[in-house]
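Sorry to interrupt, but I need a hand with the structure work. Leave the record below and I will have a look:
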Amino acid sequence: MVGREKFKGKKYLIIHADDAGLCHSENVATMEALEKGVVNSYSIMVACPWFYEMAIFAKEHPEYDGGVHLTLTCEWETYKFGPVLPVSEVPSLVDEEGHFYRKREQLRKYAKVEEVEKELEAQIEKAIRFGVKPTHIDSHMYSVCVSGEIFDVYRRLGKKYGLPVLISEELMEFVGLDPAEHIERGDLVVDQIFVAEYAQFENGKMGEYYDEVIGNLDYGLNVLLIHTAFDDFEMQGVAVNHPNFGAEWRQLDFDYFTSERVREKLKENGVELINWSDVPRMV
């Protein structure tokens, strides 16, 4: 397991924007956060309707670190999407309407491992065919950890395509997979991963949380996961009855990570920004 000792003495941080491709609002905010802010990594949801807009950006701007956000779930109440493969090829991954399940528990219960592998490989291949050159692989809602067999698929795809995959003990435990049983020798494991919680959003403390993360960052390979979009009519429609990672939340993320406040915090605390393109050369 490659972890903190490899990066001893260095405070490395990847500021990563999830969910590019989700919708137009998400895409434009992500592009601006990369161009004008301190966000230095993102990943695209190939299965979403607005994939093409973000894929064009990825092709035209290879200088930005972009991965594939492997997608097996769709959490939204009225905004739906499903597999890139025909439903007839992966029927265990969808509900009766042909959309991805809303909850990881449904995926855990119904998904067949062989169909998961077919769909996830198809998502990567679709991105590559379009001209995207992914720097890494990660997972929407970290659904790849609903079972050990599906986590093995995730790791295997990383090896097949020669790409680092996001592996985090904290996220594994959050989804219900025991890291001690499923992390293998040689896996690149993020030392610390940070994601804001609903209580911080509800109490108006998102900025304070991010200040604290940066101010107390330990040495090693750290990843800060954020979600950038605008609190506009479109994103509000996507996130109906879903304030957690909803439109207002994503606007707050955009505002903080394009501000002078975050630049000053990073400088004050000696944090070195890296991205997934850097990681293979460092290990």
In short: Residues 4-282 form a domain with the TIM Barrel fold (CATH 3.20.20.370). The chain has one domain: 4-282. The longest helix spans residues 113-130.
